[in-house]
Amino acid sequence: MTKKIAVITLLIISPCFHAFADTTSDGFWGDVKNTLSETWNSNEYELYAPVSTWHNRQFYDKEKIDGYNEQPWGLGIGKYRYDADGDWHGIYGMVFADSHNELEPVAGYAFQKMWHANNGFRLGAGYTIGATLRQDYHYLPIPVIAPVASIEYKQFAVQSTYIVGGQGNGNILFTWLKWQLK
Question: What is the pLDDT of residue 95?
């Protein structure tokens, strides 16, 4: 099942990146295509290790919380680059144990406006857009649009996103460690 999920994820996401690879058109879509192409063609890689899936207690009862997995295990890899303004761009894929302890792959693009402090410290805030596949949705592609924030020191970072939802769904703070390979 794990191989099947990984193959499906790659089949869904890869055509999106290849479609943008050799485009130099002008305007908004041209900028999007060029940004994705530059990031895809980067030689810089990073690894991701999920560490926490916290369900907001204001939206879940204790019985639900007690049944959820909040310690995801998994792994991811991505390509990244910093642009001329020092902002971070990443294309990533990650697989982790979701709230029900089922495998959940996610892949997409992320951007963070970076604030560079002294001595290698950085703070970032931005967004991610991509797709995920969940067992409880029969592994059909689900779009992902979410905020992303990070605290970074040199090549190590803690990144998080908050998945907005309603009563009894979503409202999850997902956190992972990131290591930029040098």
Answer: 97
Out of 18, 22, 26, 98, the active site residue is 98
55 is catalytic: yes
Among residues 22, 25, 42, 55, the one annotated as catalytic is 55
Active site (annotated) includes residue 99: yes
Structure-derived torsion over alpha carbons of residues 36, 37, 38, 39, reported in degrees to the nearest 10: 50
Among 99, 136, 138, 150, the active-site one is 99
141, 142, 149, 166 from 11: Cα distances, Å: 11, 14, 28, 30
Mean pLDDT taken over the chain: 88
- A 10 A CB-CB count for 59 gives 16
Taking residues 36-47, what's their average pLDDT?
95
